[in-house]
Amino acid sequence: MLSVKIYNKEDFDTICNYWQMVDCGEDMTFFQRYEWYAYLNQSCPKDCQNYLSVYIIIFQSETPVLIAPLWIVRRTFNVVNKKGAHIIGKEGYSDYLNLIYKDFCVEAFRLLLATLKKEYGIHIFHFDNIRENTKLYAYIKSAAHIKSSRICVALHIESTSEKWFKGLRKSAKQNIRTAKNRCKANNIEIQYAFDAERTRQTIEQCVLLKKNRDSQKNSPLPLKDLIRSKIKEKKIISSLRHFLTSVITLQHIKQRYYYHLPIFNPLTSPSNTKLMLALSDNKIIAFFLYGLNKERKEIVVLTAGFDEAYKRYSPGILLMEAFVKMVMDDIISDYKIIDFTRGTEKYKYDLGGLNHTIYSMSYRFNI
């Protein structure tokens, strides 16, 4: 017999045991762990008449079978913030979102939907960053409306680093050798720290590197380059009006009234993550922030940054290459995947990464 209990965010600590009974399932990632949500819960916005944060647990007898960490919009506000249920963690560093379950139970999911309708008058569920290989995605995909998709990249661990390096593309291997030769020719010595101490000074340097990297990545294209990119992507622009709406649309209006959730930043806040660094003359020239999912034997890369002044030496890829070799050659380690998560940056493919897809979709129900 299934039953339901609803907890608010102030009760989060009381559901720890329930959570840890189900967050070890095959579909669960680093981003579904209780430890990760303990930090997310602290960033949940204060409840108000328009929205609230809840944790809905479905029990089989006294055993939890499904936990739904939800941000619920009880009524549409500011026009563009539509009524519905969202999984806590959207818009932030949670590359993969899902309900929490050990084994996906259709009856428990349907009871969750019935609870949303009964308690909050909700008939639509907005799913973000759902992995294509999960049982939840398999169940809802035929009835859901897909709003967008994104490519993620992951590297499957080989038995030895030598075997892995041999399997890389010729151009990638040459780029790594070139970077090392440039370092040698210019007397650039790089040291690596794979679990660096997170001092205030270290974090400040990493934040600055990330800020500079993001400004480079997100700088707006000149109009002529924007047009070229549209053509290169084979996006057909049928008219000037179509072009203007594809570039501008109503995004300016939407952004003005869209409610942006507070984002938990695992780099600057205490978190269950680790920091790897590339240093030259005791200066940080590249970093990666990563998390470990020991149950799924996965390493998850969350964010990165590098010093533009050292760009020609490729410190980021040299750091990750050294880390990959360390993981593969560690006879104690049994990790199977290094997941670079969202984004199609070149270094991910140079290191042998393969694509997988996540989806954002809306799921209407009438139970």
Can I get a quick summary?
The protein is α+β, with helices and mostly antiparallel strands and 367 residues long. The chain has helices at residues 16-22, 34-43, 106-120, 135-140, 161-166, 170-185, 200-218, 223-232, 240-247, 251-257, 315-329, 346-350; strands spanning 2-8, 51-60, 63-73, 84-87, 124-131, 145-156, 191-193, 274-280, 283-293, 298-306, 337-342, 354-364. It is globular.
What does this structure look like?
This protein has about 375 residues and is an alpha+beta fold. Helices cover about 35% and strands about 25% of the residues. It contains twelve helices and twelve strands. It has helices at about 15-20, 35-45, 105-120, 135-140, 160-165, 170-185, 200-220, 225-230, 240-245, 250-255, 315-330, 345-350; strands at about 1-10, 50-60, 65-75, 85, 125-130, 145-155, 190-195, 275-280, 285-295, 300-305, 335-340, 355-365. A twelve-stranded mixed beta sheet has the order 1-2-3-4-5-12-6-11-10-9-8-7, sandwiched between helices. The protein is globular and about 70 Å long. The chain starts with a strand and ends with a strand. About 35% of the residues are buried.
